[in-house]
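Posting for a labmate who doesn't have an account.
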Amino acid sequence: MKKQKIKLVILDCDGVILDSNRLYEELYEQLFRKYGVRKSPKEIYAHFGESPMHILRVIFPGRDTRKIFADYKKQLKNISFSSKIRINRGAKNSIRDMRK
């Protein structure tokens, strides 16, 4: 059987290549303080990967989450989100190795 060359590899970026969990913790901590929620940001980890609006509905049940979502988007800009994202250890080397 002829060995086939792999032409494409698709990776989930956030959580695999990039680590943004701490940034989301910071974002949700700010929202918790503003809206008087007593939860640890780590309590939302089970919901990571779901839409932000869904997460906000879970965290703030019975509240109008449209205003909270507007604050969420505003906070994303305020904490310089993209400048704080870190590459997971070993990700660069793994990608380099896959190129070979």
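Reply:
Got it, the structure tokens are right above this. The longest strand covers residues 18-19.
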